[in-house]
Amino acid sequence: MKRMGLCIGLKPDAIPEYREVHAAVWPEVLAAITKANIRNYSIFLREPDNILFAYLEYHGTDFAADAATMAENLNMERWWTICDPMQVPLETRGEGEWWARMVEVFHHD
Predict the structure, then answer these.
(1) Is the bond preceding residue 48 a cis peptide, omega within 30 degrees?
(2) Is 108 labeled as catalytic in the residue annotation?
(3) Which residues pair with 55 in a beta bridge?
(4) How many Å is the maximal CA-CA distance in the chain?
């Protein structure tokens, strides 16, 4: 299992809608996330900075392949069509990243 942290900005005027859609995530989207071997997935919002922080645990062996399969899911594509315009990717993100990956510097069970 690999723990992952990601972050991205959120447009201030999109906060109510972002909260609303995430209060009722479509079952098909949840199924696609599970199929991609992602567990214990949470998104946190830091206001007033309007930064989203996502934490997830990846239980597969090839994250790139699982992420690509998830991206091919039509329900995920529709979901991202709703959510992506609300987000503001960080200028410092890596090439090809939408959400910027973070490096784990500490963990305690």
Answers:
(1) yes
(2) no
(3) 5, 42
(4) 38
pLDDT in tens, 61-71: 999 999 999 99
Q: Is residue 37 a contact partner of residue 56, using CB atoms and an 8 Å limit? A: no
Please name which of 77, 72, 66 lies closest in space to residue 34, comparing C-alpha atoms: 66
Spatial contact of 73 and 34, defined as CB atoms under 8 Å apart: no
Cα 89 to chain center, whole Å?
A: 12
| Three-state secondary-structure class, residue 105 | coil
DSSP-derived 3-state class of residue 9 = strand
Q: What is the pTM of this model?
A: 0.93
Note the CATH architecture for domain 2-86: 2-Layer Sandwich (3.30)
Mean pLDDT calculated for residue range 96-101: 95
